[in-house]
């Protein structure tokens, strides 16, 4: 396994400018650099195909926001469809010095309302999709928000359409001020809202920027299907602008659409969420070979299942095809980086998340905060240049040189790489690593596209939720036999369609929601079997 330190990431560069005005600077330097999307922009009238047109869209948004009364220091909650437009709106708000809070439209409406309350009377900026999610809560919005602004025409007379334009005054926040508020995935509870500055976003992608500058060329194209409100995407936009990296934003992850894009644009790099890659496995077997030009498959949200990594790398005909993995979180930015080549994929274990680099540091401690020796499991703590600047409604942040708890259990191996074992909140004594068990079960059952192990309500046992591949019929007896071989002989399973799974905007399974929905039914099933 290549050590990421070989990429010489020790010196972290500085950002060129605050992200609010970086698009203007990038457009002046590289106006024709491709900045593409698979579906047209709906909240901006002109085409957006390159840096120059992206900067013009941002100026248009800024003029409309200015006409709507947005000024420096205003907090603006943004709820839109998942499209690269959100990043343009973020930059426009940042250019006039407002503070955007990007909220996933995939959140439950109750969670969105809770976020508005925690933002303490923000403006609410929506498109037609965001408005459709919230229109039934007009009276709550009146209490929780300062005003509701819409980037498209709206029939509701209590919504202000942003169609007029007044020339804005650029007054961007500096590199160390809060620039954007995003939120955690909310897989184990209500999402937390974390603030980043331009500098901390830059720290998130500094290693990628250095790799871009060292290994990429203007002929490369970086395709991404991500949650466009995620801190990772905000940082990715910054990286593209800093390095003049051609980009293709994918809003529609349907395999048929992705196949069309792969054949038409031939990107050399592609990044998406692990659970989306699983849905794209079918494309790896397509006779048209849509992934044949891809050199880099990238994922920064969760480790990918070994089967998926092997399948993707086998679908590429590029001689240097590899999987690039990062381990981190919204609050910390990436902490570990790992490269897996086609040759190494046969022995790939997603539990090893690689090495630190680019100003990142890792230690393992026990419950008393005592550093643990190599190969000893404990709690993962980190220091990194991509660490957030604070939580909305939270207390003062610890000093930058303080260690940050990741909320995970792991161990450092003799070679300095990190082995991720479990999430603290999902750990069950005596079961071992739930993440490793999930990998074993999914590896043994190719008829499944996803499987998650969830703690029961008593926190002492687990149950499984398995998603069969479309067109297959689940076999409970086979599942029980495979689970027994994996050391889980009494594991109860619920088969569920993937489309019905409760997921976050980044397609992570919301385990806490699954627990509430299914724990009672699983428990009743288990009791009935024991009494039979």
Radius of gyration: 23 Å
**Total strand count, please?**
23
Strand order of the largest sheet: 1-10-9-11-12-13-14
Amino-to-carboxy terminus distance: 50 Å
The coarse overall form would be: globular
Helix/strand structural class = alpha/beta
Strand content: 15-25%
Number of helices: 15
Instruction: Enumerate the spans where pLDDT stays under 50 for 5 or more consecutive residues.
Output: 524-532
Average pLDDT score: 89
Please give a quick description of this structure.
The chain is of the alpha/beta class and about 525 residues long. The chain has 15 helices and 23 strands. Helix 2 packs across helix 3 (about 85-95) and helix 7 (about 200-215) crosses helix 8 (about 230-245).
What does this structure look like?
- InterPro entries: AMP-binding_CS, AMP-dep_synth/lig_dom, ANL_N_sf.
- It comes from Streptomyces longisporus.
- This is AMP-binding protein.
- With about 525 residues, this protein is α/β, with parallel strands linked by helices.
- Helix content is about 30%, strand content about 20%.
- It contains 15 helices and 23 strands.
- The chain has helices spanning about 20-30, 50-65, 85-95, 110-120, 130-135, 140-145, 200-215, 230-245, 255-265, 275-280, 280-285, 305-315, 435-445, 475-485, 510-530; strands at about 35, 75-80, 100, 125, 145-150, 160, 180-185, 195, 220-225, 245-250, 270, 295-300, 320-330, 335-340, 350-355, 360-365, 380-385, 390, 405-410, 420-425, 450-455, 460-470, 490-495.
- Strands 1-10-9-11-12-13-14 form a seven-stranded mixed β-sheet. The protein has a five-stranded parallel β-sheet with strand order 3-2-4-5-6. It has a five-stranded antiparallel β-sheet with strand order 15-20-19-17-16.
- β12 (about 295-300), α12 (about 305-315) and β13 form a beta-alpha-beta unit.
- Mean pLDDT is about 90; it is low at about 525-530.
